[in-house]
Q: What sequence folds into this?
DNA sequence: CAGAATCCTATACGATACTG
DNA sequence: CAGTATCGTATAGGATTCTG
């Protein structure tokens, strides 16, 4: 059974202890959004991913990938060769997420100029 | 003319200086998501909003509302009475945004248990 | 190549007190 | 009621160095 807005919003308030807040924090983190979108529909190696998400530091890339792997959004596939060859891709759950985040990025890109010009 | 993913994603990379990143940071901030969703389709006073978004501090509510007002997402309507009576509601642009954020919250609520159980 | 480890800074955020 | 001001802390995030 799926939960709707009505349950989340019981009594017109967003419950403080709702577990969705944790998920929301992972998923709407500064780099999280961009990493997931960069992986949409394709498999990338560590270095490729780092270049795809311009400006991300190694630390944040590692941290974001670990969180998302633990959350079951990203899958890590390491091939035992030298030099190391590691690939990252989205799980089906991750693909669900990216389908929700892409419209947000497109909307942000289309309205950024108007919004930021405003003062 | 509207911008699509192809332009945002030129060469397979998410440009570092894309203004959408700033908008994205506003809009995906910890409290921003919840405030906008709390205002969906209704007008709330300061105190009501504070109770609706459980756990938000006065500081963060004020800060979030100011940012969103400057971004043109939220409109502030103050009535010159004593005691003060101030109402907040979404602009049409804000309503566009909330339509994109709601599915994300619902998705988060539905997958939170699975995702967070996983380690 | 794909990270881990370390150190450091900025800022997001919270708690409390105060005010027109 | 609807904030502002101030202070303090936690953590997000960055830069650099090191390693199998």
A:
């Amino acid at each position: 059974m799926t939960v709707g807005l009505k349950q989340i919003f019981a009594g017109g308030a967003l419950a403080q202890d709702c577990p969705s807040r944790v998920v929301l924090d992972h998923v709407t983190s500064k780099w999280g959004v961009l990493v997931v979108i960069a992986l949409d529909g394709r498999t990338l190696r560590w270095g490729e991913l780092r270049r795809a998400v311009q400006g991300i530091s190694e630390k944040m890339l590692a941290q974001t990938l670990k969180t998302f792997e633990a959350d079951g959004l990203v899958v890590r596939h390491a091939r035992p060769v030298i030099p190391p060859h590691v690939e990252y891709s989205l799980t089906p759950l991750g693909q669900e997420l990216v389908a929700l985040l892409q419209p947000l990025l497109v909307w942000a890109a289309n309205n950024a100029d108007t919004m930021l010009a405003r003062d």
Summary: The mean pLDDT of chain B is 94. The domain at 19-116 of chain B is CATH 1.10.10.10 (Arc Repressor Mutant, subunit A). The two ends of chain B are 46 Å apart (CA to CA).
